[in-house]
Amino acid sequence: MMLPSIPAPRTLTIAYRAYVALFFLYLAIPLVVVAAFAFNDSLYPSLPWKGFTLDWFFGTTAPKIGLFYDTAILRGLLNSLMVAVVTTAASVFVGTTTAFLFERYEFRFKGVAYMLMLAPLVIPGVILGISILAFSSSIANAADDAFGIELSALRPGLLLVALGQFSFIATIATLVISSRLRKFDRSLEEAALNLGATPLSAILTVTLPYLSPALIGSSLVAFLMSFENFNTTLMLVGSDAPLTITMFDRMKQGSTPVLDAVSLFLMLGSGLLGLISVMAQRRGAKGAE
Amino acid sequence: MSAGPAQTVAVDGQAAARRLSFLLVFAPFALWIALVILVPQLNLLFLSLQEKIGPRHYVTGVGNYADLFGERVYVLTLVRTVVMSLIATAATLVIGFPVAYYIAKIARGRARTALFVSCLLPFWVSELVRVFGWMLILRETGLLSRLLQWLGLVDGPVEFLYNDVAVMVGLIYTSMLFMVVPLISTLDSLDDALVEAGYDLGGNGFAVLREIIVPHAKPGIVAGSIIVFMLNLGNYLTPTLLGGKNSQWFTAQIYSQFITRFNWESGSAFGFVLLLTSSLLVWLGLRVTGQTLSGTVGKG
Fold it and tell me: Name one GO biological process term (chain B) (predicted).
C-alpha cells in the first residue's frame, strides 16, 4: 500500500492503518493519564480512582492546595510569563532584522554568517546555558574586582534565563520569518517606491503587513518554546524559578495531583496557542499563493 | 551619457542609505551571535583550559580534559550517552517513518489535516508534562504495574522506571515530532508518479522504498536524525526523571560539575567535550549522506 492508487493486499492495508492508529494512541496515552489524574480525589497521582474532585484546581486547605492557591506555582507561572514575553519580543525583533539581512543583502562572509546563525540549533541547550552563565559571571566578577560594582543582573536569574532562551529561539524566529520573506514579490515594494514612498515606509506599509502571519506564528512559537524550555533555563536559574523548574523540583520529590492540574492547564494553554499558530501559518500560506 | 552632479548625489545618497540600512539589520544579528553565542563559547573554551593549582591560582593546560578522560566513569558515561542517543534516534526514525509516509502520501483531505495536527498537538505541550505522563505510567504504583497486577500477570508491584528502557521510551516519545515533521515535508514533495513508475517497472514495495522513496526523503531523514540526535544527547530532563540517580547521562555530569560542585573549569571541559562530540557526529552524518546543514536543518 505505497499509494492509494496502487492495489495492495487487504491485510497489509489493515495492518498499516492499525499501526498508524496505535501510533496515535501511543502519542495520546501519557497526556490522557496526566489529565485524568488531575481530577482524582487522592493525595497521589495514581490509581485507585477515589472519585472526582476539582480540589487540585480550587482547593484551599492543606494537603489539598489547588493550583490557583499554590503560591510557589503561581510565582513560577508569573516568572515564566515575564521571561517568555521578553524572550519573544527580543527573538522576533532580531529574527525579523536577521531575515532581512540574509534575504535582502549580499555581503562578504555571508555563508559563514549564515552558518553562525544556524549554530545555536546544533549546540546542546545545557551548553548554551553554562557558556552564558560562565561569561556573564566573569563580566560581573571583573566589574566587582575593578570597580567594586555588583552587577546583580548578570548573576543567575530571570534576565540570564531570558538571554539563554533568546540565544536559540532567535534562530527559529529567523527561519520562520525568512521563509515567508523569500516568497514576497519585490515588485510590490517597488510599486510603493514609485508611488513616492520612502524605503522605510514601503517596508512598514507593504512588507511588514505581508509578513504578519509569520510574525504572529514566530511569536507564538517563541512564546511556547520559552515557556517550556528546561535545559538552558536549568543552568541559568537563580532564586526566582520559572514554572518548569518549580515543577521539576516537585516531580523529583513525588508530589500531589496538583502537578497534574498544572500540566492540564499547560496543555490547554499551549494546545490553544499551537492551534492558533497552525491556523495563522495556513492562512499565511493561502495569502502567499 | 555622463551623470550630472544632481544624479551623482542621488546615487551617493542611495548607496549611503543602503549602507545604513545594512548596518541597521546587521547590528542586531552581530550582537546576538557575538554576545550570547560566539564569545561565551570561546570563554568556555578558555575556562576549560584553566587548571586550578591552589586557591584563586590557575595555570593554562589541558588538565581538566586529562582528568575527564582519565576517569573511567566519565568516559563510560559519554560513550553510553552517545550510544543510547544513536539507538533512540534510529528507533524514532523507524517508528516515525511509516506514520510520516501515511500522512504525506496516503491520507487525503480532512483526515490528512486532522492527523497532522494531532501529530503536532502533543508536542506543543512541555517536555516536562510528557515525561511526567510516562512517570505516572511506568512507576511502581503506576498504571502499567497496576494493569499487570489486575490481569494477574504479576504478584506484586513492578518498577518500570529508573532503567535504560524507561529512558529510551521517554527519549523516543519526546523527540518524535522532530523526526515526523521534516519527514512529512520531504515526502510531501515526492511525486506520486515516481512511485507508480517504480511499480510499473516491476519493483516490489521494498525496492520502491529503497530506490525511490528513501533517496527522495534523504534531506528529511538527515534533518530529523540530526535534530533528534542532538536533542537526545543534550537532554537532561528525560534521563534524570526516568532514569533516576543512575541514569548516567553526560549532561547530568555537566550539571553536577557546574551547579553541585561549583567546579566550572572542569565543567567547561565536560561541556566542550559534549559540544565537540555532537558537532563531530553531526558533521559525520552530513558527510556520509552528502547533505549540508543549511540544506537540511536550515530549511526550517
Answer: transmembrane transport
